[in-house]
Amino acid sequence: MKELLILGAGTSGTMMANHLRKTLPKKEWNLTIVDQEEIHYYQPGFLFLPFDLYKSKDVKKKIDKFIPKGVNLINEKIERIDKDNDTVILKNNTSLKYDILIIATGTDISPQEIEGMLGDHWHQTVFDFYTFEGARNLRNKLRKWEGGKLVVHISEMPIKCPVAPLEFTFLADSYFINKGMRDKVDITFVTPMSGAFTKPKATEALDYLLEQKHIKVVPDFNIESVDGEHQKIIDYGGEEVDYDLLVTVPTNMGDEMIERSGFGDELNFVPTDKATLQTTVKDNIFAIGDATNIPASKAGSVAHFEAEILTDNIMRYIAGKELKKEYDGHANCFIETGHGKALLIDFNYSQEPVKGTFPFPVVGPLSLLKETHMNHMGKLAFRWIYWNMLIKGKHIPFVSATMDTAGKQLEESI
Amino acid sequence: MVVEKIYGELCVTCNEQGYLTDLNQWTEEIGLEIAKEEGIEMTNEHWDVIAYLQDQCRKEVPLSIRKIGKSGVVSIKEFYHLFPKGPLKISSRIAGIPKPVSCI
């Protein structure tokens, strides 16, 4: 019997287990997946949890519920990958031999990377919403917060779901209006990028949102430290921003196991071919989702599109065929803008988000780069799609792994 | 939208924000002219950073402030000192490589 081993049973790993159990001959291939967690979180829900729009139970389910029959799930921490011996060593000293390895260990926040971010103020006046604990603690804080300076902040790129911090500011505006206290809250968005939006078409179509919602933007801010005592963040250029409540997205890094294994870049992301998803570490090691260093968004939709292509490429690898250089960076995401509306964007490595309709030309029913109620309904419906179709590796009808240009207004783009 | 721009005797294509669209058109003279526009007087330290950025760009490695801080070429503090206010944005423009972007 041959062994295929998947590290990580999050969105990407679970999808790959489902795809491959259907595709790989059961008589020839054992399939094993390793994860230290017992809970699978619906991470897009972390955006809604702080505003009491979702309850805790909406975003968590048992991890084994989504692992198909015929796949061996091991609940243990991963110590390291010994690539020279095609072996993974677990924390309990078990060694797992593999013929093919898929790294799907994702990314997590590393607040310790920013001086002063952790401390007595962590989850008191400084919060993240990229973890279940952070989102839940922030919800409890917001329920009793009486207002002041709310600063929503990105530490450094790349981050998981790059638009989530901006969505957070839009939803915060909505939330405080609904609570009748918007006049008591000052909202500032602080980003290391040159603006809230950086692509020309998106900037043109969406800049009005910031003005309309009275959100101040502090661009080009590269944080050096958090001064928890005086409640301010300071950047390398000496610029300071005061806060009463800081909602930050700390540095995002790949799993420390990658570092212990002796590969990975300065953020522990795995060097991966952006078109084939084979790593440059070794031929029999592949990577998917947030764990890779490819220049695509770290997002569930990316993982979903990658999974279809990676499944094909694993089958080609086994058959000794050349890998398909097919992944084009396709990403697709809903952006909540508050007040029951949302935007939808669809783009890839080379095509920036533009206006149009999705998934069908003209008919839609979803509109690209435009605020509509229908898009918001799409985002809410997505939770059902996630639990029932996406991570089970079912194809989402009419949405292909590579980007479709039909229905998009491309003529003005560069 | 792409525009043509003349630096000295050389004509190059830039995007509307003044970033070169093709690194192959770059020369040190063009780098100097763009630096002038950005109000930066180039020294050897500046050129070392520019050479590093171009090398990374040719290797298709996405750039970040952290990566530059760990490159051994400059520390983040020095990088800010060399190219005050948005060092990655300014140095990328002088180097003739694309502006660092996010997804939207």
Explain the overall architecture.
The complex is a heterodimer of chains A (414) and B (104). Chain A is α/β, with parallel strands linked by helices and 414 residues long. Chain A contains seven helices and 24 strands. Chain A is globular and about 65 Å long. Chain B has a two-stranded antiparallel ribbon. In chain B, helix 1 (28-37) runs antiparallel to helix 5. Chain B has one domain (2-95). With 104 residues, chain B is an alpha+beta fold. The mean pLDDT of chain B is 89. Classes of the chains: A alpha/beta (414), B alpha+beta (104). The interface between A and B is medium-sized, with 33 and 25 residues.
Task: Give a quick set of tags describing it.
heterodimer, A: 414 residues, alpha/beta, FAD/NAD(P)-binding domain, five-stranded parallel beta sheet, 24 strands, B: 104 residues, alpha+beta, 5 helices, globular
Percent helix of chain B = 40-55%
- Per DSSP E runs of 2 or more residues, the count of β-strands of chain A stands at 24
- Unreliable stretches of chain A: none
- Return the domain count of chain A: 3
Shape of chain B: globular
CATH topology of the largest domain in chain A: FAD/NAD(P)-binding domain
Sum up the overall morphology of chain A in one term.
globular
Oligomer: heterodimer
Largest interface: pair, residues per side: A-B, 33 and 25 residues
Largest sheet, spatial ordering of strands of chain A: 5-2-1-9-20
Strand order of the largest sheet of chain B: 1-2
Q: Approximately what portion of the residues of chain B adopt beta-strand conformation? A: 5-15%
Secondary-structure-derived class of chain B: alpha+beta
Number of helical regions of chain A? 7
Largest sheet of chain B: 2 strands, antiparallel
Helical fraction of chain A equals: 10-25%
Radius of gyration of chain A: 21 Å
H/E element sequence of chain B: EEHHHHH
